[in-house]
Q: What sequence folds into this?
């Protein structure tokens, strides 16, 4: 997890400050429902950032080529 969650003293507010207005979602992209939800979320996003092994997102249909068909301006970052 984020180390700013456990900062003592004056650092207590850092996590809330840095992470306000962010959303967290847990999806199982190995399921059809999880992939459909991920694609729907990507369609409403400006940026998708992923850090899976090379080729995994393509095999799941969640790669840049597939997602950008629905959202041409999508920025896709792969670590």
A:
């Amino acid at each position: 997890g984020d180390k700013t969650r456990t900062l003592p003293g004056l650092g207590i507010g850092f996590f809330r400050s840095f992470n306000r207005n962010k959303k967290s979602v847990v999806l199982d992209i190995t399921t059809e429902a999880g992939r459909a939800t991920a694609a729907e979320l990507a369609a409403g996003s400006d940026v998708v950032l992923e850090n899976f092994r090379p080729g995994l997102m393509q095999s799941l249909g969640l790669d840049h080529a597939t997602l950008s068909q629905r959202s041409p301006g999508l920025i896709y970052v792969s670590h």
